[in-house]
Design a protein that fits this description.
alpha+beta, Outer membrane efflux proteins (OEP), 2 domains, four-stranded antiparallel β-sheet, elongated
Length: 446
């Protein structure tokens, strides 16, 4: 994720956090809402979804805040310098004597530098740095989740549109069957029941088309919402190239899963939380140890009617905590138990990640096989429907055979649509499960 140093806050750039930048890109055009007026690629959909998601802004704000916390803890390695100044005017009257007025001014400068604290400040700094790593990893994990949501919504719309085309084809087939039944009825070669059954099938196909069109409009509104627009926002999607499963590639992916799943951002966040807890334990233990500081001061005092007084001092201060009411003991115990809890949470997450990856991979394999089977089913159903309708038009067979073949074809088309987009989504879901879901997977052509 390339980042460019921020001029006013180099800490943000050093720790992978830059304000106002869209993750994984420095191209501001990716967040341009004006692109909604053009046919959208999947990459455009993902860009708009991540740019306009309030959760994305919150995550980046959290990372920047934690980067600033690192800076706060780095300040412990620098000296502190304090300037003080006082000015006063005094008026004194004794008995009947005339009042005497005087003025005094004092200015001073003091400096302090912590020489040795046996690991307290280093522990606090390491804790803040690891929490920053965890915040960035959590941000990346959430971005990948939002990324996958955008992909799912995109394919849901494509699937809904394909279902509209499928039901339109089914309606056309039903209309052709009705025309054939009417022709045979008028020729006296069919019964009124043939005509009524064909008309019923056409009405059902029309109803299915209306339902599919409604689902398409809902899917379009849902995707517009995901991209940060009103559900009524019109837009179009760029044509999508047909994708076929590759069994060889899928088997190769399976070999990489054990290694690649270690790149999951949420696992990285959990590991960073453990390191942060370890650093916090070190810092907590150090609070019960001595610390050594270097102190220096200089002051100048001037009082009216008196000579100016200058003073200065330099020295070291050793502070040794002798008894704190067992506070340090309990603080250490708290930090130890928090560390143990972080380790247990990481182990639990690791087990869940292994299960997630296994399920995502098996789902990909199943959807790949289902897509190939759906292709075969649609091909055979298409041929069967054409043959059956041709036989009926030629006066052979009956209307029930035609309607049954057309119903099977309509179901085969819908199953093929469902299988295709389930396969496409499952590829992205597997990438997300192993922490490899990013814009590079989408390419320039989708």
């Amino acid at each position: 994720m390339p980042q460019q140093a921020a001029a006013l806050d180099p800490l943000w750039a050093e720790n992978g956090v830059e304000p106002g930048k869209f993750p994984q890109t420095q191209d501001a055009s990716r967040c341009d809402k004006g692109k909604i007026k053009k046919p959208l690629l999947l990459a455009d959909v993902v860009d708009l979804a991540l740019c306009n998601n309030p959760q994305t802004r919150a995550l980046w704000a959290s990372s920047r805040a934690q980067a600033a916390t690192v800076g706060v803890n780095m300040a412990a390695y620098l000296p502190t310098l304090t300037a003080q100044g006082t000015a006063s005017r005094n008026r004194e009257q004794i008995g009947n004597n005339a009042a005497v007025s005087s003025r005094s001014e004092t200015v001073g400068l003091s400096a302090s530098y912590l020489l040795l604290d046996f690991g307290a400040r280093s522990g606090n700094l390491e804790n803040a740095q690891q929490l920053l790593v965890a915040a960035n990893a959590t941000r990346d994990a959430t971005l990948q989740t939002n990324f996958l949501t955008a992909v799912q919504s995109y394919y849901a719309l494509l699937s809904a549109r394909a279902n509209v085309l499928s039901t339109q084809a089914a309606e056309n087939s039903a209309r052709e069957s009705l025309a054939a039944a009417l022709a045979r009825y008028q020729a006296g070669a069919a019964t009124p029941a043939d005509k009524l059954q064909a008309q019923t099938a056409l009405s059902q196909a029309t109803l299915n088309l209306i339902t599919a069109q409604g689902n398409e409009r809902n899917a379009q509104g849902a995707l517009a919402n995901v991209m940060g627009f009103d559900a009524s926002q019109p837009f179009d999607l760029a044509p999508v190239a047909e994708t076929a499963p590759d069994p060889v590639v899928e088997q190769d992916i399976g070999k990489l899963i054990a290694e690649e799943r270690q790149k999951r951002p949420d696992l990285a966040a959990a590991d960073a939380q453990i390191k942060a807890a370890e650093a916090q334990l070190s810092a907590t233990r150090a609070t019960g140890r001595p610390n050594l500081s270097l102190n220096a001061s200089a002051a100048s005092a001037r009082t009216s009617g008196a000579p100016t007084s200058n003073s200065g001092s330099i020295g070291v201060t050793l502070s040794v905590p002798l008894f704190t009411g067992f506070r340090n003991t309990y603080q250490n115990h708290v930090a130890e138990q928090q560390l143990e809890g972080k380790v247990a949470s990481r182990d639990l997450l690791s087990n869940q990640v292994a299960l997630d990856v296994w399920r995502a991979y098996q789902t990909l394999l199943a959807n790949s096989q289902a897509l190939r089977a759906a292709d075969d089913l649609q091909t055979s159903a298409t041929q069967s429907g054409e043959v059956t309708l041709g036989r009926y038009k030629a006066g052979v067979g009956n209307i029930l055979d035609v309607l049954n073949a057309q119903s099977i074809l309509a179901n085969a088309r819908q199953q093929r649509v469902s299988a295709l987009y389930n396969f496409l989504v499952s590829r992205m879901a597997l990438a997300q499960s192993i922490g490899q879901l990013d814009l590079t997977l989408l390419g320039e052509k989708n």
